[in-house]
Specification:
The chain has 378 residues and is α+β, with helices and mostly antiparallel strands. The protein folds into 3 domains: 147 residues, Rossmann fold, CATH 3.40.50.300; 123 residues, no CATH class; 75 residues, no CATH class. The protein has 10 helices and 16 strands. The strands form 3 sheets. Strands 1, 2, 4, 5, 6, 7 and 8 form a 7-stranded antiparallel beta sheet that branches. Strands 9-13-14-3-15-16 form a 6-stranded mixed beta sheet, with helices on both faces. The two termini are 36 Å apart.
């Protein structure tokens, strides 16, 4: 497997607050900063959607995370069965209703290497060979069309269009019709939630792939006494919680104790770094995304965390995208990047210019000036 980056640059068109957005050069590890509500999380969502090839499950999860998977307010009776589809407008720039002026979302490296999504109305008909076909129709022709339905036209790298009409957590049809060679291994850590079931899956894979030592190395940043880690299946008998009836919990063995103890008993920070590194090593030859990387971590360990991230990203051929609001975290990133190859780390600041979201890019030399002069770029 080549060590080429999944994305050397980035264009985003008509997605969320990005009308026509561009980053000219990305690195191995990319740190994104900027004020609140400037689009940092939306940028991560775009990269996730690109890596997951427009998966209906990913679309649903992105919308649900912001309470956008259902329309707010009243709807006409004939629209109620298409509620999830109409909620898709929240992903499009301007959040316009779906008419003939509906825009196309484009996310990718350039005009040739990208993912495009367009909301469209279709009618399903049977051709002369008794084969069902779907043809696009105009919005005003819906009432007079035969078997109309709303759908998404998905194209990857300008290839043949694929249509799917249901957007929810259970729709995995799209993953079966995408060529395996186009799929990108991608994992994400959100700022405010970690799924214990996902942790168990990540840990199993890291163990099989012989990457367990990297996880132990990460835990030692906070607790040097850690010598091993495992997962045990915990059965929850409390019917008043939403926790699954059975789920895995991480346990660790410390040199000073005879028995394993729950990882959670060591505090939020070590659990955060456990999830972070597990997701990173499971993103081998792909993309790792983390929102608000500083959450739960004390500023004193930022340098060690960044050193490990840079090392694993290079060793495992992972492209990292992270956001932060924290100045100590930013400074630690800049200091760590000083000792990397010229294109390893990139700092990207999102801001607004004439109402549009724009990116200011900082290379290794720029970052050292920022660090030395204590320039505010968050």
């Amino acid at each position: 497997m080549s060590n080429e980056l999944q994305l050397k640059s980035l264009i985003i068109q008509n997605f969320r607050g990005f009308e026509n957005f561009q980053i000219n050069q990305l690195g191995r590890v990319n740190l994104i900063v900027g004020k609140n509500n400037v689009g940092k999380t939306s940028l991560l969502e775009a990269i996730l959607l690109y890596a997951n090839r427009g998966s209906g499950v990913t679309i649903y999860d992105i919308l649900k995370d912001r309470d956008e998977h259902r329309l707010l307010g009243s709807m006409q009776d004939d629209e109620s069965s298409y509620e999830e589809f109409f909620a898709l407008k929240n992903l499009f720039f301007g959040r316009e209703d779906f008419t003939d002026s509906t825009k196309t979302i484009v996310i990718g490296e350039d005009t040739q290497k990208n993912l495009s999504l367009k909301a469209q109305w279709y009618q399903r008909q049977i051709n002369d060979d008794d084969i069902p076909i779907s043809t696009p129709i105009k919005f005003e022709d819906i009432s007079s069309s035969e078997n109309p339905f709303p759908g998404i036209n998905l194209r990857i790298n300008n290839g043949k269009g694929m249509i799917y009409s249901r957007i929810d957590r259970y729709n995995r049809r799209i993953s079966r019709i995408i060529n395996d060679s186009l799929e990108i291994n991608c994992n994400i850590i959100y700022s405010n939630k970690i799924d214990p079931q996902q942790l168990g899956k990540w840990r199993d894979i890291s163990l099989i792939d012989g990457l367990e030592s990297n996880v132990i190395e990460a835990l030692k940043i906070i607790e040097p006494d850690v010598n091993s880690i495992n997962m045990v299946n915990y059965r929850n008998n409390d019917k008043n919680t939403r926790q699954p009836s059975s789920y895995p919990i991480p346990i660790v063995k410390l040199n000073r104790y005879d028995k394993f103890i729950p990882l959670k008993s060591l505090g939020d920070g070590i659990n955060r770094i456990f999830a972070l590194i597990l997701a990173l090593v499971n993103s081998k030859n792909g993309v790792f995304i983390i929102d608000e990387i500083e959450n739960g971590l004390h500023y004193s360990i930022y340098p060690d965390v960044w050193k490990l991230i840079f090392k694993l990203a290079e060793t495992l051929n992972v492209q990292v995208f992270a956001t932060t609001h924290n100045k100590e975290c930013l400074n630690a990133f800049n200091k760590t990047n000083k000792n990397q190859t010229a294109q390893s780390g990139r700092l990207i600041r999102l801001g607004r210019k004439k109402g549009k979201i724009v990116a200011t890019e900082y290379n290794q030399k720029d970052m050292q000036v920022i660090l030395e002069r204590d320039i505010e770029v968050r």
